[in-house]
Amino acid sequence: MPLRSSEKKGIIVLSFLLTGFFVFPLLIEEDDTPFFLLTQAEIPDSMVQLSTHPASPVKRFELNSVDSVSLTKIKGIGPYYASKILKYRKRLGGFHTPLQLKEISFKYLSVDSLLDHFYADPKHITKKEMDTMSFKSILSHPYLEYGEVQLIFKAKKEWGTITYSLLEQKKILAPHKLKKIKPYFK
C-alpha cells in the first residue's frame, strides 16, 4: 500500500526526533565534548548594545472618559476593538475596573497586555435607578439575565418599588450577582 505524502513527512520527522533523543545523547556521552553548545561563547563588543535611556512610562487612559481616537493610539487596538470597548462601556454604564475588559471577546488581542494602559475612575459610572427602568432596559445590562430581571420585576410588583438595597435585604438575587451589579444601580 503506497504512503501518502503527509505520512512520508511524518516518518521523516519521527526519524529526526528519534535521532535527536537517542543517538545524539550517546555521541555526546562518548566524546565528552559539547556537541551543539560552544564551550565558551564570546560576543564581540560591537554586537553588545546597552540601553542608555530608561524605558518610557506607559501612557495611561481613563476607561470611562477615553474616546476612540485615543484608544486607537494603543498598540493592538484598531477602530474595531475601540468601538467594541466603547459599546461595552455604554452597555455597562462605565467601567469599575480595567479587569472588566476581559469580559469583551477580543479574538486577536491579549487583554493582559492592555491592562497597563488603563485605569478606571468609578466616579464616572452612571448609576441607574431600577425603579424607573423598563424590563427591556434592565435586561440590556450585560450582568443581568432574563430570569434575574423577571425576579426583579416580580419583587417590584410585590413591594411597589425596587432599589439595590431592597434586592440586597430581601436576597432576590445571588450574592455574587449583587456584588457585580452594585456599582451600576442605585
Strand order of the largest sheet: 1-2
Number of helices: 8
How large is the radius of gyration? 29 Å
For the biggest sheet, the summary is: 2 strands, parallel
- The 3D shape can be described as elongated
Span between termini = 74 Å
What is the SS-derived class? mainly alpha
Mean pLDDT: 85
Low-confidence stretches: none
Order of helices and strands: HEHHHEHHHH
Helical content (DSSP H or I, runs of 4+): 40-55%
Number of strands: 2
Oligomer: single chain
β-strand percent reads under 5%
Protein name: Helix-hairpin-helix domain-containing protein
InterPro entries: RuvA_2-like (IPR010994)
Keywords: Membrane, Transmembrane, Transmembrane helix
Organism: Sanguibacteroides justesenii
Overview of the structural elements:
- With 186 residues, the chain is an all-alpha fold.
- Among the domains are: 61-124; 130-182, no CATH class.
- 44% of the residues lie in helices and 2% in strands.
- The protein has 8 helices and 2 strands; from the N terminus they run H-E-H-H-H-E-H-H-H-H.
- The protein has helices spanning 5-31, 68-71, 79-92, 111-114, 135-139, 146-159, 164-170, 175-181, and strands at 61-62, 118-119.
- A two-stranded parallel ribbon has the order 1-2.
- The termini are far apart.
